[in-house]
Design brief:
Number of helices: 27
Number of strands: 19
CATH topology of the largest domain: TIM Barrel
Radius of gyration: 27 Å
Shape: globular
CATH architecture of the largest domain: Alpha-Beta Barrel
CATH class of the largest domain: Alpha Beta
Bound molecules: glutamine, zinc ion
Number of domains: 2
Largest sheet: 8 strands, parallel
Helix content: 40-55%
């Protein structure tokens, strides 16, 4: 019989219980026991839910108080010395200090958090392991076996999940950039052997070892590390069956290495790697079980169960049902928890979707069908009807949008004139001084703003009262900017809860959820809006507020839009058409908005694209085709305006070396980027690849609560003018100011403007 399995379940809790628990612990409002009790309650609920849904291999150790990569660092003793407790134990407090730093107290100095970065191409962030030459690994936590036993005591036999040793090392960093972490593999495998022996002794039979790195572009040394590690792990635990799990990618040139793994099982992602099944089936070793990642763990759509069953049957007839596991493509931590909680969503829309809980049931239904068990018949029928209805729905398909998108011409992705001519027209229209100053868009989202929004959502404030409040905020920030002497003003974005959600709420083809949270990092979750249909813009989205701000001042006010690539990247997207097509529809909607802003007298418009870099595919060889459509979409969005309208874009992060040509090809008149913390990396990039238009390398580190000194900003600008011609240099912060407080923002911007003035005097 085929077996229903899961790779991981959201750990945040149905109502973000984990967030409330750890934040209460951090605030000193609950003690360690209470935190651990609440965490255990989330695990219990998750295990019971999956068992009740019909999952046979229910995962354990997929839970984490903060991050499973950090848990792994702790498990193997890769704990940087600065976090060690004086008595050599690792308690909760050093765990959280690694995750988020610790401020100084009278009895001990503060310490910064470890580095955090995105987990593959997801929006989940992990804590980067720190590994150094001569590192000794030892078991420092028994979390995997503890949680296995905990489930066992509840009557649930689980499949423990471990992050595999090769992926762990490949994700780690070292103080010495030349150091190769794989040289430590043998010592690390020693520790994993002990962990596996503990799990075997506790009664585990299958253990899932996640090795998503086997889906990346690897060199031969890296690729061969998998075989070496697993030969030892398999030999060390003869009673265990190891499932090596690869996800987020197809296997391509790593197919041979995957097939050669000595493990008892291999998991593949059939959402990202559709073609892998046909490839593997004839070549799979006789004693190897195949886990089929059929249910998309990274999106919100119902699986086409009939299709999944048909795919699974190919595997069962080739391998025999006993060698087949039915699974999600990857862990379900990238899906929202429970669609049933969306009581505000209309029934039709809901009938198209499945969140983690519903996906667990889908896996069980596919398994039942494959096994010839008729109990799931009615669910299969309902699924077929829902999938067909979604495909045909008028809400999804808007012929006008499709026609318009098909009719896009190359000229629509071109400004009327090349940059040097536009520049002249813009200089005339704007008459800005040298070293013009501006900000990235948002001003502090104060407690009052959040309170007003919450009151409006609860109906305690009327729409007019709320609007009046926002008007006053906008007016105040315009007055502040004029007084401070900024050259290009912004309205401050007080009306926006989130730069994607705000537009998603106003575009046709978008839906939002009330509880569709997905963990982003630690206690932080995001609630991405959902693109379900052809996207269009029923009415202007920003003209009211930006026009109002412009009416208050003679200085130019910059209209703030979120770019098409970022809208796509930070939403759940359609799975029934290429992402490039969805992006193009978004681009056309934003293009219309830019046109309306221009007609309303707005002379500067910024189209933010902070997510363009993180949208890069995992494999290098796929980059070019992505960048081609991503850049084209940005250009469609930003090229519908007159030469004299100055188009800005903004990106976070300073690491652009590898995509700088694409960034230049976006052809924005002005680009602002993070720079102040990059230690010159951004400028190095521009030294090697001169940027043809204007640039504002950030001079104000908005991630820190520190006030920027004028001298600091001047020093950064002096470095910048060595690389960027001074008549093309802008002065601005690294990013939006919404997470900061006015107490820091006011003096920092004053100092930033003073720095620009100093630069002007010393011309
Ligand atoms: N305009 C946005 C803001 O200032 C940009 C945010 C971002 O780059 N992530 O908040
Ligand atoms: Zn930014």
């Amino acid at each position: 019989m085929a077996t229903s399995t899961n790779l991981g379940f959201p750990r945040i809790g149905a109502n973000r219980e984990l967030k409330w628990a750890v934040e209460a612990y951090w605030a000193g409002k609950v003690d360690r026991r209470e935190l651990l009790r609440r965490a255990a309650e989330i695990r219990r609920a998750n295990w019971a839910l999956q068992r009740d849904a019909g999952i046979t291999h229910v995962p354990s150790n997929d839970f984490s108080l903060y991050d499973h990569v950090l848990d792994t660092s702790v498990m193997v003793g890769a704990i940087p010395e600065r976090y060690e407790e004086p008595d050599g134990t690792t308690g909760l407090d050093s765990y959280f200090a690694m995750a988020r730093g610790r401020t100084a107290s009278p009895d001990r100095p503060g310490v910064a958090a470890m580095e955090m970065t995105k987990w593959f191409d997801t929006n989940y962030h992990y804590i980067v392991p720190e590994i150094n030459k001569g590192q000794i690994f030892t078991i420092r936590s028994e979390k995997p076996v503890d949680e296995f036993r905990e489930a066992k005591a509840l009557g649930i036999h689980t499949r423990p999940v471990l992050l595999g040793p090769v992926t762990f090392l490949l994700l780690s960093k070292s103080a010495d950039p030349a150091f190769d972490p794989l040289t430590l593999l043998e010592g690390l495998v020693d520790v994993y052997e002990s962990v596996l022996r503990q799990l075997a002794a506790a009664g585990a039979d299958w253990v899932q070892m996640d090795e998503p790195a086997l889906g990346l572009t690897l060199d031969n040394r890296q690729r061969s590390a998998f075989g070496r590690a697993y030969a030892r792990l398999v030999a060390a635990s003869p009673t265990l069956k190891i499932l090596a799990a690869v996800y987020f990618s197809d296997l391509r040139e790593n197919t041979k290495a995957a097939l050669a793994l000595p493990t008892q099982g291999l998991h593949i992602d059939l959402v990202r790697g559709r073609g892998d099944l046909e490839n593997l089936l004839p070549k799979l070793r006789q004693d190897m079980t195949l886990s089929l990642g059929l249910v998309d763990g990274r999106n919100v759509w119902k699986t086409d169960l009939a299709e999944a069953v048909a795919t699974a049957r190919k595997a069962t007839s080739a391998l025999g049902p006993d060698r087949v596991l039915i699974a999600p493509s990857c862990s379900l931590i990238h899906s929202p928890v429970d669609l049933d909680a969306e009581t505000g969503m209309d029934a039709e829309m809901k009938s198209w979707m499945a969140f983690a809980k519903q996906k667990a049931r889908e896996i069980a239904v596919v398994t039942a069908a494959v096994n010839g068990d008729s109990s799931a018949r009615s669910e299969l029928e309902a699924n077929a009807a829902a999938v067909a209805a979604r495909r045909a729905s008028k809400r999804v398909h808007d012929p006008k949008v499709k026609e318009r998108s098909a009719a896009v011409t190359p000229e629509m992705a071109e400004r009327a004139s090349p940059y040097p001519e536009r520049r002249k027209a813009q200089q005339q229209a704007l008459r800005l001084p040298a070293y013009p100053t501006t900000t990235i868009g948002s001003f502090p989202q104060t407690a009052e703003i959040r309170k007003a929004r919450a009151s409006r959502n609860r109906g305690e404030l009327t729409a007019e009262e709320y609007e009046g409040f926002i008007r006053e905020e906008v007016a105040r920030s315009v007055r502040f900017q004029e007084k401070t002497g900024l050259d290009v003003l912004v309205h401050g974005e007080p009306e926006r809860n989130d730069m994607v959600e705000y537009f998603g709420e106003q575009l046709k083809g978008y839906a939002s959820t009330s509880n569709g949270w997905v963990q982003s990092y630690g206690s932080r979750a995001v609630k991405p809006p959902i693109i379900f249909g052809d996207v269009s813009r029923p009415a202007p989205m920003t003209v009211g507020w930006i026009g109002y701000a412009q009416s208050l001042t003679n200085s130019p006010v910059k209209g703030m839009l979120t770019g098409p690539v970022t809208m796509l990247q930070w939403s759940f997207a359609r799975d029934d058409q290429p992402r490039s097509e969805t992006c193009r529809q978004l681009a056309l909607a934003i293009r219309d908005e830019a046109g309306d802003l221009e007609r309303a007298g707005i002379r500067v418009i910024q189209v933010d694209e902070p997510a363009i870099r993180e949208g890069l595919p995992l494999r290098r060889e796929d980059w070019d085709s992505y960048l081609e459509w991503a850049v084209e979409c940005f250009r469609i969005a930003s090229s519908g305006v007159e030469d004299r309208t100055q188009m800005h874009t903004h990106m976070c992060y300073a690491a652009y070396d590898d995509i700088i040509d694409a960034v230049a090809a976006m052809d924005a008149d002005v680009i602002s980027m993070e720079n102040s913390r990059s230690d010159g990396a951004l400028l190095e990039t521009f030294k090697k690849h001169p940027y043809p238009n204007e640039i504002g390398p950030g001079v104000y580190d908005i991630h820190s609560p520190r006030v920027v000194e004028r001298a600091e900003a001047v020093a950064l600008l002096r470095r910048a003018v060595e690389v960027i011609p001074k008549d093309r240099l802008w002065v601005n912060p690294d990013c939006g100011l919404k997470t900061r407080r006015w107490e820091e923002v006011e003096p920092s911007l004053r100092n930033m403007v003073a720095a620009a003035k100093e630069m002007r005097r010393k011309r």
